Amino acid sequence: MGSEHSVEIRSLTRRFGEVAAVDDVSMDIRRGEFFSLLGPSGCGKTTLLRMIGGFELPTAGRIAIDGADMTDRPPYERPVNMVFQHYALFPHLTVEENVAFGLRYKGVDRKRQSAVVAESLALIQLSGFEKRLPHQLSGGQRQRVALARALALKPSVLLLDEPLGALDQKLRKEVQVQLKHLQRELGITFIFVTHDQEEALTMSDRIAVMNRGRVEQMDEAARVFERPTTEFVANFMGASNFFAARVRESAGGSLTLLLAAGGEVRLPMNGTRYRADEPVRFVVRPEKLDLRARDLSAHGVPSVAVTIEDRVYQGISTVWVVRDGAGERFVVYEQNEKPFEEASRFAVGGRAFLCWNPSHAVMMQPQAASS
Amino acid sequence: MTIQNPKPKIQNRISPAYPLVLPTWIVLGVFFLLPLTILLVISFAQRGTYGSLKPIEDFAQYVRSGKILANYARSLHPIYLQIFWRSVWMAVVTTVLCLALSYPAAYYIAVVAPARRRNFLLGLAVVPFWTSFLIRTYAWMFLLRTEGLINRTLLSAGLISQPLELLYNNFAVLIGLVYGEIPFMILPLYASLEKLDLSLLEASADLGAPRSSTFRRVTVPLTMPGIVAGIILVFVPSLGQFIVSDLLGGARTILAGNLIQNQFAVARNKPFGSAVAFELTAAVLTLLFVYTVYTRKKGQDVLL
Asked: β-strand A254-259 against A242-251: which pairing, if any?
């Protein structure tokens, strides 16, 4: 086990009765990266985080932190610290006492303690709040104290369990940027649990998307967004434009597909081998679809005849809802960059062609229907 | 920087709930303040023949001669001071034992046990209340006496050759007191442990605190209201107990409660009994008052 990895997880499983909250998960989290566990509630992301922290013991599998096996160690013997979902600040202790709480177990003597506390509070810009009790702070301030309390111990890994969930939208955006900066500055590995894909994209170097206790996809943030491998991930990332097709031919670096709704499209190959006549599905993100008045297939541009079902003007963009010949619905985001008169060129109930750049089509892994 | 506590402002206004508090004041007045006043008045009198109160002919003379405080002076006699001291000591030991036994039990019920079993377990702690306290105390006599269950079992098992003297001593009284008062400790402890945010215990462990430190630095401070409530609920009745010491204690284990009861029922000296009873009540009220002032000064939630 190399030391380039901060956390190594091998075949980790946690069962609650019959249900596997975390089901045979393996992953390596790199030193100093901002890693997010993303997924809907109940997907196992929090259970996984709690097992790394030592609050939940795995049914099977191993966890190593900094190369040392920590699977059965209690939380107080692990070189990790956690920012809890509702902060878990000690209500009977002042800000100062909260931040200093763990220092004595790290062997920091009394004199050094106050220096570390001052340093940690300065880091989160809460100097001057030392003597306050948690209930005298705002939600955002509490969140920062929780962060300072964890960081004061200089953990090798910081675990964050949806710490921004209780903040309002505007503050949340600010804190996301601050957290990312802080992480880069300190160089500590952050493992961040969230159900908000935008939040994960904003901050993370890499993201693991979880579903039903398993990792659906683990990749760099932009790749998870641009190149989802499963329909679940595509859906979760806000791309639900699935095209059903059959393989006609796969040769010469390109794949010719026969769309279920009729018509042929040619897509670049992605390395996977396909049999002739094999049913496949691919996705195109809504912002990468385009509505045209003419069929462009003769020019090598995939074009699908659709009926306009709805048009929602949203100021900076317009959302089109269209339906193809097979009754499948698609959503198109259009930036309102064209002159206003031209933007409303398609009438609801009218016909148009759905076009896209072939390289924006993402093939889905063949699998049993999920979600 | 301090933030003004908004509480006092609310208290200064006349609460719209005032009429709702009225029944409480009536009950308190009729069943506590009035009897206490009667007790106080009687405690200044002297015992007459056949246990009645001796009429006072010259009140000024009665005051000047110091007779008005004669009962209180008598209560300071070493023989009575010894009884008071034993009462306090027994009540303290009872409270400490109750706390030591109840905390793990309450912790188990409120924190460790699965939520669906909590009410059942709590019910078990309260079940003894369904039987008269007197009967339960008699049951202890059957267990502890020379030919009782415990001695017979030990004898037949060959562990002892002579029956142990389990009854009619301080030990028996302590068992009876602890047994009788323990639910009053478990219930408030449970109430405060049940409110304890378990993520705080996790946070403490996360910050490196071993279990014992978490208990000392987080669990105990946060359940202090329950601990104090339990101490008050156990200590105060233990101080005035007379049934347990009467039945399980011998002649040497007479407590303040027995002294008072004897003065009213046996010696028929109501004034002296009243004086002792008033002293006991005053001592308890003083303790509670000191506690209230202390917690209010510290700005904590006031329990009383």
From this structure: antiparallel
